[in-house]
Every structure is written in C-alpha cells, then in structure tokens.
Structure prediction request, 293 residues.
Amino acid sequence: MAPASQNGAIKVELGRRYRFAASHRLHNSGLSEEENCRIYGKCNNPYGHGHNYVVEVIVSGQVDPATGMIANLAELDGFVEREVLEPFDHKSLNEDVAQFRELVPTTENLCIEIFRRLKTFSKAKLERVRIQETSNNSFEYAGDNAEGFER
Amino acid sequence: MVLLTRKIEFAASHLYNNPALSPEENRRVFGKCNNPHGHGHNYPLEVTVAGEPDPVTGMVLDLKDLKDILEREVMQRMDHRFLNYEVPELAGQIPTCENIARVIWQLLDPKIKQGKLHRVRLYETPDLFADCYRNGAEGTNA
Prediction:
C-alpha cells in the first residue's frame, strides 16, 4: 500500500460515541441537608434519578498505512465496553461504582473518572472525553492535554 | 479569531482490503468492511475556517466561495462515487474515515485563501468521526 505520507503536517484524531444509562444522586455527606438541597436542588432527591449519557471518546495517533486506521475500532470498542459501559450501564453510580461512594457523581467528576479509566488504552493516545448528560448539558475533560480545548 | 463552520453531506461506497494481506487476514482485520462488493455511507462533513472578520464585509470568508470550493473539491469528486475506484487521491490507501478526512484536508487547504483551514470533521456514522488539524498549530497537542 502507498505510505500514508504527509502525516507530519496534519494531525488526525478519531472520535467514537458510546451510550449508557445510569442513575445518580448529587449529595455531599460533609454538608448539611439544607446546604445539599440548596446547592444541588432536585438533583439531591434522596432516591436519585437517571440519565442517558453519551460519551464521546477522542484518540489520536499515526494512521497505520496497512489498515488506514489510528486504532482498530473493535479493539477500542472492546476496551470502552470493559472499562466503562459494563461497569456503568444500568447502574447506580453512587452505589455501584466504588469511586463515587464518597465523590459526588456530577458529570464533571464522571468525565475525570472515565478519562482516568480510558487513559490506559495502549493502541492510541487518549485526547479527551466529552459527556452529554442531557441534550443541553455537556462536559469535557482532557487531562494534561488541556490545550486541546482550543478546538 | 473567529471560527466559521460549513456543513455538507455526500454519499459514497467503499470497501476495506489490503492486497498485501491474505484474504483471511483481510477478513480478520476489516471484518464486514471487507465485503468485496463494498457498502456505503452518508458522510456529513464539517469544514471549519479560522480568521478575523473583514472590517468591510464582516466575513471571515465569503460563504459562497467556501460553498463553491466544497462543491468542486469534495462533492464532484466523492458524491455518489465508489471511493476505492473513482477517487484517484485515495488510490493505494484504505478509504477509512481517517484517510478520507486527510485527503479532504489536503484538497481544501490550498484552495482556502481567506482565513485558514482549522478543522475538517468527517462523520462516517453518527457515532464515528475523524478530525484533522494542522499539526503544531495553536490548539493542537502535538
């Protein structure tokens, strides 16, 4: 195959969207009931509530001339399935995910936790994670790649 | 700096096959994308140009000019085509989303005279896309 030349001048990234549904409750046990209610409003409802989360995973790397790919999608899908979808889908984030026993499962914290889990993907560099909590709210985290936000 | 984005959509067919690999390897690496008769997608394309608005016109570049460039460089070349066989710029490359996006960047970059090409985003499905940026430009991590 022809070499994927001109790779140097252009940076190519691959984005993939995944979905999971989960419940959460925004509550900080270090605060009083009144403060929790004031800060988190209806998200502090003691029984929790849920969202359909859309997770956008963006990776970068060399495009392999033999395959035309930055990363094999089946490998990326399998990795995200194992690290994020399987442990989070149809779960209570507060009860079922150890990291959120103490940490408030806001979507900001969820972004950081998912970035931490996906950063170990060995076949490409994780650039950033963007999560849509609802069609009106989205959050992004790029770890040390924060300059990536300029985009 | 202001970013201006125009969206178009083309439809095309493709298949993934590397003649250097055996038929078994091709099937293993590319899965159903290796179907010898090909398959197709609608490809929404977002092209973003960066620049300062012209004080006289208030425009980063004239949208009509950008529309004409996209029509000439992308639509006429790729719309309703079989990418493997009908797009010479992709000859010898696997027409993945990454490679098509890069070819589109290479076609558009020299044609955009007002402002500067900032990003090419090509969707192959609503859940899969490739982004191209100028390497080393402000806002890239390279």
In short: Chain B has a mean pLDDT of 94. The two ends of chain B are 21 Å apart (CA to CA). Chain B has one domain: 2-132. The first strand of chain B starts at residue 2 and ends at 14.
